[in-house]
Amino acid sequence: MKLNLPLKLATLATVTLSSVLPFNTPVKASGFQETAVEQTKVIAIARPYGEGKYDLLVIEQIPGKRECWAETGANPVLVEPLLLNYDFTGICRRSTDSNGYSIRLDGNDLGLNYLLRVVPRDGELVLVGTPRAGNYSEIVLGSTKGLASGFMKIILNPGWQFTKRSYEGKILGHFYFSATQTALASGGQTTGTVPTQTPNPVANNGSTTLLADINTNVYKNNIEKAVSMGLVAGFEDNTFRPQQNVTREQLISMAVDAIGTVYKVDLEAQPKRDMIPFKDVDGSRWSAKKIKWAQWNFMNIGNPNNTLQPTEPITRAELIDTMRRMAIHLKNQLNLPRELQQTQQPVQFSDISGSWAEGVITQMSGYCGIATAIDEKGTKFAPDSKATRDYTAAVMVRVLECVKAEAKQANATIK
């Protein structure tokens, strides 16, 4: 059956404040740093969006500008987000989804590893970091100290503070909920025996190194680029596990993040056409917003019974079909011709005849060499084999580089 699917190598991680950090925990390796901010100028808010449902809203007041919010009461503190009543551009900064905020613990950005959620619990709303996979303990960051209707302030637990992501001295818009194990312990939070975590260093050429199991991998350079771009992460034991399968929702998430390196992705935007949600993708699932966005913007996903089967592995044929759709979407956004011009002679694969994806695989082989043989050797593509982490990272980077090169050439031609 043809399944037109894309999906994120959102590597699965867990940091726990009450149990030992598992040794298979992935940690994002990047060159990002963090910069301190004035704590009174940033607020975390539990925002109601449905019957008994809340999500996380982070607002930052720009100094010298009109107030972005007002606070009243206690236990809980009610918040009136004034920015809803006027154009807040240039007055406040806000982040409404995982693209705009993440947990940073002991210098490690855990955005790919943990999903920040606001959940009702024991008469209050609690801000928790939920592992994207695995049966491990959550991280509790703060709570509303009570329950009421409307917007409520989330009071961070001792040891946690707001910081902002920075890169090469430039402060970025991304917010961190930041802490160290030492600060959490001194603040009274129990911490188990947690192995020391150090972000993978960045080599002089800007590529992420020390992924111990990719040194001889044919896709090593592409993997390092994908890691440095934040599309995929290594694991805590400095491995990448290149032969591990990629699930459908992982590829969707990775594809959306890849698109986000070209233009800003708004996961809160409402679809302009009717969409039937997948029966097996609950709205609270970590990948739900990205799946919905992908379905609306560039995916043709679906099974006859309207299920996605998000945790099922994707095949190499499905991966390449996804890359084709992603490339066309990006070209549309950049006002480039939709056609995928052949940049090289396509490989005559020996095992794709009769496959539903035969034409797509051939086309994507000629388009910047995105579709290639297994381990870049011979003529077998293996369309029905499971897509692995190394090849998925490689083709994702190839698509981005190909589209960006085409856009650069077009701009040069216009000039």
TrEMBL record:
Organism (species): Aphanothece sacrum FPU1
Domain SLH: 206-269, 274-337, 344-410
Pfam annotation, one family: DUF3747
Superkingdom, taxonomy of origin: Bacteria
Name the record gives this protein: S-layer domain protein
